[in-house]
Design goal:
Blueprint (H helix, E strand, L loop, with lengths): L11 E3 L5 E10 L2 E9 L4 E5 H6 L3 E2 L2 H13 L2
Amino acid sequence: MHIQQDPIINNWYTNLTGQLFKVRLVSYSTAGVGSLVVEYIDGTKQIISREEWNCLKLMKHRANKQKESKKTEEIVY
């Protein structure tokens, strides 16, 4: 299931075609998020607007959750 994702810097996302990319930069204006820089797994970067971001059907890449749970496990004794 795809839900609207807020762009979070350094989080990985996948789209419907399976492309994996990371949010590298988010620019803000008085109206909120203005544009974003995303970096694909092959290293190419692209600037997209908030409107384009909203049209993407994204899922957070699962590696983020696994990494977070590992950190939690390491801290808990």
